[in-house]
Structure formats: C-alpha cells, structure tokens
Amino acid sequence: MKHAISSNVNMPASPIDSSDYAGGLGKIVQLKIVNALLAIVFLLAGFIFKQAFPDQTQVGDLLIFIAAISVFIPILINGLKGFFEKSNRFMTEQLVMFATMALMVSGEMLAATIIPIIMVVGHILEEKSIIGIEEAINSLKNLASKMAHRTSDGKESDVAITELKINDHVVIYPGETVPIDGRVIKGQSMVNQAHLTGESSPVEAAKDSEIFAGTINLNGKLIVEVSRTSENTLLHNIASLLDQAGRTKIPAIKMIEKYLDLYFPTVIMVAASALFLTHEISRLVTVLVISCPCSFVLASPTAMIAALVVASRRGIMIRNSTFLESISEVDTMIFDKTGTITSGIFQVIDVFPEKMNEKDEVIAAAAVCASGSMHPVSQAIVRLCEEKNLGYLKAERQMELHGKGVLAESGDIQFRLGKAQWIFPELGLKPPREDQEDNSSAVWVSSGNRILGKITLADLPRKELQTVLQKSREKGVKEMVLLTGDKSNVAGQIGRLFKFDVVKAECLPQDKLDFVQTCKKQGKKVMFIGDGINDALALKASDIGIAFGSGGADIAIQSSDVTLRDDSLIHIPFMFSLSRRIIRTIHENVIIGGGFSLLMIVLASAGMITPVWGAIAHNLGTLFVIVNSARILNKM
Q1: Does the pTM exceed 0.70?
Q2: Does the structural domain 145-232 have CATH classification 3.30.420.40?
C-alpha cells in the first residue's frame, strides 16, 4: 500500500465507550414509548367504560383524565425547564403545555391526551438518529477480531488483540480476518480490503506489505509484525472519528418552530388582552382552546409520516424523518465508486479467442484454473461457466502464483490463467501490448503450449447511473463528485464517461471525511452515497448520508440517514421529488391550517364563539392538515 494511514488520523487517547449512548438515551426513548402507550391504554379504557356503563361516567372520565395527566407531566417538566433555563429549545413544549392546560380546564381531555402523544412520536423520530451512532460503533467493533495467533520462538499461542504489542509477530491463516495493523514479514496472499479502502480488487500482500485490521486474508498464510496496537488501528480510528462526527453534528432547525416563535407570544398576548378588556374568563378559555396548536403540531409530523410510508413502499428506509426536509436543499452529491456506482462484482465483458478457437473453449480452459481460486476474476469466470452450463476439466494440481496468475494441471495438460507478461514468456512468446486505460482487467488463457485467447472483465457502472446523474442535476444539484480508493486511471475513466465535476482517486476514509467537511465549510449542502466501511465517516459527516441495505457494510448502513433496500440508485431522484412535496405540504398545512386558527382566535376574542364551538372549530384546522398530508400517499 502507498498510503500512510497513521499520519492522517489524530486519535484520542482512550478507546470508545459506546455506553455513553446506551445508558442514557436508550432509557429516555423507552420511557417515552411506555408513557405514550400507557396513556393510550387509559384513554381507550375510559371510552369503553363510558359506553359500557353510561350511569357511571365518572370512572370513565377518571381514566381519561389519568391518560391526559400521564402524557402531560413530561411536557410540563420540559416546559418549566425552558422557563428556568431561558432556552428556546423547549418553546414547543411550553406552547403545548399552555394549550393542554387550557384544554384540561375546558374539559377537552381527548385533545389534551393526543397532542402530547404526537410530541412523543416526533421526539422518538429525532432521537433514533443519535441512537444509530451506538449501533454503528458496535457493528464496527464486531467486525474486528478479538483474538490473534501470536508466535514467538516457533510457538503459537492465542491471545486477545489488546495484549499485542508493537513488533509482536502474529500468524494469519487463509480465510481469517486480519486482527491487527502490521507489516508482512513472511508469506504471500491476496487480501480483500474493499470495504476498508474502497479498492475493488483484492490486493497482493507479500513481504513488507502493510495490511489492516478488519480485512480478510483470502488464500495464503501470512506472518505479520504488529505496527500499531489495537486502540490505534485504522479500524479503531474510523470508529473514533465516527463517534466525534456523531457528537458534533448540529441538528437542523425545525421549520415548524420558526412559525411557533411568533405564534406563542401572539396567542398569550391575545388571550390576556381578551381577559383584561372584557373581564370574561370564557373568552380567555376560548382563545386558548382555539389556539391549541393541533394544526401546527401536526403540520410537519403528518406530512412526514405519509412520506415515510411512501418511501418504505419503494424500498427507501429513512432513519430520521427530518432529513426528508433537508434533501431538497442538496447542491453537492458525492459518490463512492466500488459497490456504489458499480456493482462491486467483476463480470466477464468479452472473450477474444486466438486463431480458430471457440469462445466456450477459452472459458472452459480458464475455469480449470479459476475453479479453485478465491480471486474475484476467477470467481467471475466460474460464474459465467456455470451460467452457460459449460463442462470443464477438474484440476488435479493447482498453484496460485501471486501477481501472475494460476497454474493448473489436468491429466498431462497444463493450463495457465493470468497476466500476459507471465504466460507469454513461459511459452517462449513476446507479450502483446495491452491497453489498460479503461476500467477492465484482461487475463489470458493457455492450454499446453497454445495461447487460447483473452478474457476481459470489469466492475461495471450501474445501468441507472447516467439517468440518476441527469435527473439529479435537473432537481438542482450543481456538483457531482466521485471519491474512490481505486487507482487514478480507473477513476478517471468513469469520471470522464459520466461527466463528474470532481474526481479524486486513492482516497482513504480520512480523505473522504476531509473532503465532505471542506464542502460543508464552503456552505455546500452535501449528500454522500456509499456502501463500505471506508465510507462510514463521510456518511455520518455529510448532511445526507445514503447507504445500500444489501451488500453494504453494516457500519455504513448504521452511519447513514437513508438506506436503499434494493441497492438501486434510481430512488435518489425520487427522494428529491418527495422532499419538495413534503416542504410544500408543510407550508400549506401551516398557512391554511394556522391561518384558519388565527381567524378563529380573532372571532373568539370578539366574543362571537363560545368555548364549546371554539373546541369544535379548532378541530377543523386539524382535519385539513390530516387530509392534506394524506394526499401524499396518493400522489407519490
């Protein structure tokens, strides 16, 4: 590897303790859910009792009162806390507190119960994104090995990775996860580190190669000298940076609270003025009942719930509904390459037989060598052979030559699959010139002393990519960026083909994070789309992070705001449309529903509406908000 990992990351001295999240926030969410469910149970019990025993309505009223009180108390506590702390962040709770108190005074226990429950649902949706940090860090920890085979004086012993010290020697067998960052001192193998560095093909690990914890040793025994302790590995660094990004991420200001900043003092002033001028308590109660912010409180959540239903139908899993509002503001889209704009799986592009050989003959001969290899190129050839139902000889002896190819023998025939620079000289021939400027890999096949042909393979871009880029630009995205851990020639080829505005190759996780943070400092609204461990930091730091549900790394999914369940990029332009529809619906809800409420407040202040009719009237605004939000279900 060319990259100097350790110099790019500044680590805190102590390891991460995800219990910082698990201990407090998880319990808060659980208490809120239990409290809301308890209120619903008491509310239903009260109504059922009143219907079953009409002559004992007091018991039913008591049950409904308990339901209202159970959800009102948390609102009351936060509302009072806002007054004592002089903090605007509890302003919504303060408004709901006064409205609920007015409803209780006027006997509207049903509304007094429902409004705090809606508040609880909204808070749970917000807090879910914070809890996801803990899940993400835990999934990353689970990826790392907890034990290692330490060797000393020819003897092996299994030890915890926390016991390993710099310059210790560890043995890593084929198929095992690399437990620690280190330098290979003996052995050869191929190491799959796509999720960590973004390189689409396994890299060769030989003497003096650097390998990283969390990657997979595919097919050779390695002896590695430890270069970094367990709390300083690249894998641990990613988790630590993810922790920092999660803690410093500033939540967006909620649109509904902008309206309530003016609404709250206006209502209090109008209600107090009505009482002062008329000395009629009924007018004050009517104003407060009508001003009960059902339409305001429901303006955003109802639209969000409808949008979440629509999104889930299309396989778009949104972890935090507030990001639906932010998507419409995105002006910069950043894509990872491997597994994101490409499938992450090599495919055979074409077969070029030499002389009179048939394509199927070339594929079958290649499969003799490929059938016992873990290399993605070999696996692609075997898949094609199986798809075409081609029979091929079984190798009696097989040898994988690192950096060259695979040598196999069946009977008295010797087959070779690999690079031209290896096969042609072995047969006494001069290698042809190969064009490596595209995104393909070429391997040659020989049988005995004959060159059978060439097979080209590539990790192809997704079919929908061009459409997604075009439609996203039409939705207002100004800059398309490609960040990848792949080589410059591969990244440049795709960048030119799909007209990316910025292309950066050979990026490490820290490089991607730095690029996202630079864009945000420039005032850009950033969406990052990725699927690997190496994308986790950028996903969390971006304004909108989108990951793939199947095939993507768990850490990337947990770090994202949106997960695409069926791994299709075509959902991204739809999210822009859905976001704009949500913004428009919320504005309609606030302007029309809120405007109606303000009209009723004026009428109530003039004494033209009684408290009973006021309670009925304010529900009309709520009804409009619900129906208007439900239209999203039918039109998207």
Answers
A1: no
A2: no
